[in-house]
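Tokens in:
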């Protein structure tokens, strides 16, 4: 029997793409989210942190496969909300799946769960969790992963975790918004670090592909325990790491076509990493004194300067995952989409 899908967080960037791809191939799919942005996929309004909400939707839809992409925005939410959604909410989803007899649960985590600020090169799934996660988002993703793995096999529930890296594409309002604002304010000539740090970026279409592959290949591991996917973790990237500032400059170069003459050739101002860390600490302290968010932090400096690229051999072999859209093509698409919005929507 074909699966019936529920995409939790289906109004978000990744969840939306997953839901549409499932719908486009003819699957029975619904969305659960706290906000409705689209009306072309059956939608259920609800907060996963409220007792009984997920179970009620599972019973109404008859879902056999849950794809859980919901999470607060990494750059804007506070610690309390991260713990509430990423940990408590995930545990409530697990409990609901077990009670409803759902057979498959696919969870969206993050490659950042193994990143502690040190360089990561060719990192695979054998890397341990970061002993000191860089922020509460990563800390709560680690705890959620542990709960998902522990649930594998309970009442015949099969679970799998995907760890995407650097998701971007049309519909993204975080990465592109930041780069757009930097462009408008004329700060594109500032570079922190030596730009020798390779970094993974992944088109959202490809990440959605990986989730659907995982769902398709996720089979009940009990009692045979033969599934190669159940209880497993997979890094998902484009297998094409870019130097960090080459990617950002690629976005800015594409924006030039919409703002001819805005940028004049200027010498690049390179700030060493150590100085960037000092400035980040200063801005954090200043922001704390003034009760506002800092414009620069030690985390953003670390993120901009560290090598962060991953080995996806396991995803290729076990899931059959192959990136179908290039980074350059997705850069074209996201800038075109962003500039198609009204100016008021870009702020």
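Residues out:
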């Amino acid at each position: 029997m074909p699966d019936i899908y529920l995409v939790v967080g289906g109004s978000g960037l990744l969840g939306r793409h997953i839901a549409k791809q499932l719908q486009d191939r003819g699957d029975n799919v619904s969305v659960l989210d706290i906000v409705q942005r689209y009306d072309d996929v059956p939608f259920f309004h609800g907060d996963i942190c409220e007792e009984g909400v997920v179970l009620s939707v599972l019973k109404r839809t008859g879902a056999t496969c849950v794809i859980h992409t919901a999470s607060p925005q990494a750059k804007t939410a506070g610690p309390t909300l991260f713990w509430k959604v990423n940990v408590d909410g995930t545990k409530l989803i697990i409990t609901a799946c077990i009670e409803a007899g759902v057979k498959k649960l696919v969870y969206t985590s993050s490659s950042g769960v193994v990143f502690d600020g040190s360089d990561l090169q060719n990192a695979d799934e054998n890397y341990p969790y970061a002993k000191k996660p860089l922020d509460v988002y990563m800390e709560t993703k680690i705890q959620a992963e542990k709960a998902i793995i522990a649930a594998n096999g309970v009442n015949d529930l099969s679970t799998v975790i995907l760890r995407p890296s650097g998701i971007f594409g049309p519909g993204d309002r975080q990465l592109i918004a930041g780069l757009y604002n930097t462009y408008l304010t004329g700060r594109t000539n500032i570079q922190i670090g030596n730009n020798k740090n390779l970094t993974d970026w992944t088109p959202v279409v490809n990440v959605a592909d990986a989730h659907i592959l995982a769902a398709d290949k996720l089979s009940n591991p009990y009692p045979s325990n033969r599934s190669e996917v159940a209880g497993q973790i997979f890094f998902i990237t484009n297998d094409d790491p870019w130097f960090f500032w080459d990617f950002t400059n690629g976005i800015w170069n594409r924006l030039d076509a919409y703002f001819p003459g805005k940028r004049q050739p200027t010498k690049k101002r390179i700030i060493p990493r150590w100085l960037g860390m000092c400035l980040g600490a200063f801005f954090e302290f200043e922001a704390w004194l003034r009760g506002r968010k800092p414009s620069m932090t030690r985390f953003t400096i670390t993120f901009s300067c560290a090598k962060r690229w991953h080995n996806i051999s396991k995803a290729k072999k076990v899931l059959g995952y192959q990136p179908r859209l290039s980074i350059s093509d997705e850069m074209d698409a996201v800038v075109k989409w962003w500039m198609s919005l009204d100016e008021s929507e870009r702020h």
